[in-house]
């Protein structure tokens, strides 16, 4: 980007005045240093761009696409509080900064996604045991200009707005210039995205809204392989949804564009030097939008610089005048006043730390009170303990909010000092890490005996006599397992979770305290420099003519600064589609194809359809064998679009627009022998009424969830009272259906996904011991992956001979013809082999 010549020329003009002779150089030494430092910052002109959005919306893949190679690991759990920056550099290298030792430089073969994962992946660096603060990555192939730095932080992409993320948004956002808000073409995260966009907008940050993963868009296929909606039409609908999301989040009707990209195709295109694949990714459309946003924020940054220069000029002039006149010592009084303000925030900071510590002590007391309450409670019913556990969770949540407010108050005071000292907060980083855990009631099953009425008229008379003589005539005894509270396990869990929360709270106190102290030290250093500068000027000989000339020259420069006034554009939400003026050659165009090609396409879709229906029939037959009775298929989802697609594949049932609309409204859809349940429906009252009708039945349950956002999916499943109600009151075979799995396929890491899903299944089985284990499936267009998963699920003792036989059979299937299919099948089968 071109440097702002006017700003740089102003700095040079000021320095020329202050450096005209030796006397001035000596007198204005600190001022000259100040302007030199400012010039260096302006020449570097660093623009910080944060990538925000839902977890695993393809952030790492996008950054890798900008780098032109796979350096950041994908499909991982990011280690909390580690900031990653990416920029252009002459040398390809990464620098890892630690809290307690010197930085480590990685380059050559030592710089790749696996090495970075050792520091950035929570599974390899649990609780940040290596004490990594930041990782800076540079590459000559970085697509953006050398002054643009991409900032990535786990706190900016949590699934829910947890305390950690709220703190990050409050503390890190002020140091950011632009936000790339990355989402996917899926709609199930719009509510979370809207909340984040509101926060970013309140901080007056430029936003570029990006919908990623357009490569995953599939045509909407109807019966017999007929295309009901093509990809272009579906993408237009998603773009319109994105625009509406922005308008509702910020209450603004301005015209702006939503940029749709495929980070994966951009990365693959750059690695393989495939220009067509690269162009299809739209990545250049994004880089163009970023460059335009940089141009839009520069007037605001320059206006801030001009104000800063003007304040420094006024400081120089007033200081000289006070010293010459020997009265009205406003500058030294101002220094003392700011010094007093710093002393005040130091005291407030100390008090705030004590407040946080006292809040943590309250948590300790809550733990003891809760344990005592559980011990004293007589009931064995799990539900009766829910109130106790909910109380402790609510208290913990309240304390977290209080800690957040304490930190926010201190941060606001700190920002005021930055302004008073004429310092740029954009160069300040601080990132605390905190996320508390909730507590659940633990239960167990105990064998009990109950009396059941015997059939027959004769037994009715016996039961009358048994009631009189207190006998068991007319009844038979039946043993059953009753769910009761496991007090010891619940108490142990209360202690364990509370200990973890306490440790995290102490961690935030330490991390935030360290960062805050850094700012305080900077403030005191700046104040001491100002005091020293004032005293040194005061002791110097007064060269009236020289000083008078300096004052006149600086006044003239100051007038020009005020007259110029860099234009501060309003903060816009992304950029106008018209302004971007995307090349016509890249626009999607309609073209005709031959009947032969179209019929071949229909035939392929029909083959996929028939194979999927065979899987559906197999699952139905398998459920009959497990429960020994007729079952209904019930599909439980938080994402209608994905669920409807899966139902059409597995059952051959296609929902029309009106049926989709009713499902969104009322939450339950019945058709033939299937039920679809959408828990996020609008009409909650009607939904709950219909739900009550679905008890004391047998169901083949398909729980659909987002595989990329596995943590959020786990919360949805485990904390759903409605799902809990259905499972508790019915005979259930539970099948887990993974949606949004593509990131793991792209990363050749499907085994990690299956392992995470296995852990999720174990948690579900532990919570609902009465549940019957079903299959793990993938909502993929190609049924071959589900064939492999079913084969793996069937063989509990999966051995090498099974692996070879099944692999040969699957590889012989025409559906596994491509390289990606074969690699993914091998990953799936090897997971079961190693299991």
CATH architecture of the largest domain: 3-Layer(aba) Sandwich
Given as residue ranges, the uncertain stretches (5+ residues, pLDDT < 50) are 430-439, 568-572, 582-591
Helix content: 55-70%
Instruction: Summarize the biggest pleated sheet.
Output: 9 strands, mixed
Top CATH class of the largest domain:
Alpha Beta
Instruction: Bin the strand percentage.
Output: 5-15%
Question: Spatial order of the strands in the main sheet?
Answer: 4-3-5-2-6-1-7-8-11
What's the count of strands?
19
CATH T-level topology of the largest domain: Rossmann fold
CATH superfamily of the largest domain: P-loop containing nucleotide triphosphate hydrolases
Give the number of helices. Answer: 28
What is the total domain count? 4
Overall mean confidence score, pLDDT: 79
Using only C-alpha atoms, the radius of gyration works out to: 33 Å
Structural class: alpha/beta
Description:
- The chain is 57% helix and 14% strand.
- It is α/β, with parallel strands linked by helices and 835 residues long.
- The protein has 4 domains: 45-293, P-loop containing nucleotide triphosphate hydrolases (Rossmann fold); 342-442 and 486-540, no CATH class; 443-485, no CATH class; 595-781, 3-Layer(aba) Sandwich (Rossmann fold).
- A 9-stranded mixed sheet has the order 4-3-5-2-6-1-7-8-11, with helices on both faces. A 6-stranded mixed sheet has the order 15-16-14-17-18-19, with helices on both faces. A two-stranded antiparallel ribbon has the order 9-10.
- The longest helix is centred in the middle third of the chain and has 53 residues, at 487-539.
- The chain starts with a helix and ends with a helix.
């Amino acid at each position: 980007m071109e440097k702002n010549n006017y700003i740089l020329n102003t700095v040079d003009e000021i320095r020329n005045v202050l450096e005209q002779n030796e006397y001035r150089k000596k007198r204005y030494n600190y001022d000259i240093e100040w302007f030199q430092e400012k010039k260096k910052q302006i020449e570097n002109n660093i623009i910080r761009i944060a990538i925000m959005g839902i977890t695993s919306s393809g952030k790492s893949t996008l950054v890798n696409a900008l780098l032109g190679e796979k350096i950041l690991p994908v499909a991982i759990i990011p280690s909390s509080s580690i900031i990653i920056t990416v920029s252009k550099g002459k040398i390809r290298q990464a620098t890892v900064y630690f809290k307690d030792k010197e930085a480590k430089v990685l380059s050559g073969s030592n710089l790749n996604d696996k090495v970075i994962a050792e520091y950035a992946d929570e599974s390899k660096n649990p609780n940040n045991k290596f004490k990594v603060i930041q990782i800076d990555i540079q590459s000559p192939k970085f697509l953006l200009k050398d002054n643009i730095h991409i900032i990535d932080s786990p706190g900016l992409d949590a699934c829910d707005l947890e305390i950690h993320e709220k703190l990050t948004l409050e503390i890190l956002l002020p140091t950011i210039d632009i936000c790339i808000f990355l989402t996917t073409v899926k709609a199930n995260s719009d509510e979370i995205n809207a909340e984040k966009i509101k926060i970013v907008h309140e901080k007056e940050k430029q936003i570029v809204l990006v919908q990623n993963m357009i490569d995953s868009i599939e045509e909407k296929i109807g019966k017999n392989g007929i295309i009901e909606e093509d990809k272009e039409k579906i993408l237009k609908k998603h773009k319109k949804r994105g625009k509406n999301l922005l308008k509702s989040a910020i209450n603004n009707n301005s015209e702006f564009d939503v940029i749709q990209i495929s980070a994966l195709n951009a990365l693959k295109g750059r690695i393989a030097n495939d220009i067509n694949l690269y162009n299809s990714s739209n990545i250049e459309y994004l880089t163009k939008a970023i460059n335009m946003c940089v141009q839009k924020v520069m007037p605001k940054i320059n206006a801030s610089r001009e104000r800063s220069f003007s304040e420094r000029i006024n400081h120089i002039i007033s200081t000289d005048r006070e010293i010459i006149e020997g009265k009205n010592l406003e500058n030294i009084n101002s220094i003392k006043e700011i010094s007093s303000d710093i002393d005040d925030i130091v005291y407030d900071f100390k008090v705030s730390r004590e407040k946080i510590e006292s809040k943590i002590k309250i948590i300790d007391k809550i733990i003891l009170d809760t344990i005592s309450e559980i011990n004293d409670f007589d009931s064995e019913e799990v539900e009766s303990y829910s109130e106790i556990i909910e109380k402790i969770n609510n208290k913990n949540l309240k304390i977290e909010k209080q800690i957040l407010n304490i930190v926010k108050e201190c941060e606001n005071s700190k920002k005021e000092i930055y302004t008073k000292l004429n310092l740029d907060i954009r160069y300040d980083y601080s990132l605390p890490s905190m996320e508390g855990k909730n507590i659940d009631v633990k239960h167990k099953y105990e064998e009990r005996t109950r009396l059941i009425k015997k059939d027959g008229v004769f037994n009715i008379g016996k039961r009358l006599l048994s009631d009189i003589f207190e006998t068991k005539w007319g009844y038979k005894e039946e043993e059953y397992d009753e769910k009761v509270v496991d007090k010891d396990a619940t108490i142990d869990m209360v202690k364990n979770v509370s200990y973890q929360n306490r440790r995290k709270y102490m961690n935030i106190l330490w991390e935030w305290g360290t960062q805050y102290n850094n700012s305080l030290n900077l403030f005191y250093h700046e104040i001491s420099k100002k005091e020293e500068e004032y005293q040194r000027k005061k002791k110097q000989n007064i060269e009236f003519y020289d000083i008078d000339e300096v004052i006149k020259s600086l006044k003239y420069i100051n007038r020009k600064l005020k007259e110029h006034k860099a234009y501060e554009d309003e903060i816009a939400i992304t950029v106008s589609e018209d302004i971007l003026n995307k090349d016509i050659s890249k626009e999607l165009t309609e073209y005709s194809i031959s009947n032969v090609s179209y019929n071949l396409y229909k035939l392929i879709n029909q083959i996929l359809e028939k194979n999927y229906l065979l899987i559906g029939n197999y699952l139905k037959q398998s459920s009959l064998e497990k429960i020994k009775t007729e079952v209904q298929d019930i599909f439980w989802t938080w994402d209608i679009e994905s669920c409807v697609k899966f139902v059409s594949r597995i059952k051959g049932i296609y929902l029309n627009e009106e049926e989709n609309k009713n499902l969104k409204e009322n939450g339950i859809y019945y058709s033939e022998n299937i039920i679809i349940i959408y828990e996020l429906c609008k009409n909650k009252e009607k939904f709950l009424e219909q739900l009550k009708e679905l008890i004391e039945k047998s169901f083949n349950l398909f729980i659909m969830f987002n595989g990329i956002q596995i943590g959020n999916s786990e919360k949805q499943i485990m904390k759903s009272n409605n799902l809990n109600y259905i499972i508790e009151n019915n005979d259930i075979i539970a099948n887990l259906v993974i949606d949004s799995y593509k990131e793991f396929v792209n990363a050749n890491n499907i085994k990690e996904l299956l392992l995470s899903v296995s852990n999720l299944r174990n948690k579900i089985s532990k919570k609902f011991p009465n549940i019957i284990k079903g299959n793990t499936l993938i909502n993929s267009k190609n049924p071959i992956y589900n064939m492999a998963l079913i084969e793996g699920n069937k063989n509990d003792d999966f051995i090498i001979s099974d692996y070879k036989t099944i692999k040969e059979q699957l590889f012989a299937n025409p559906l596994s013809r491509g390289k990606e299919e074969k690699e993914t099948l091998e990953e799936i089968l090897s997971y079961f082999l190693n299991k």
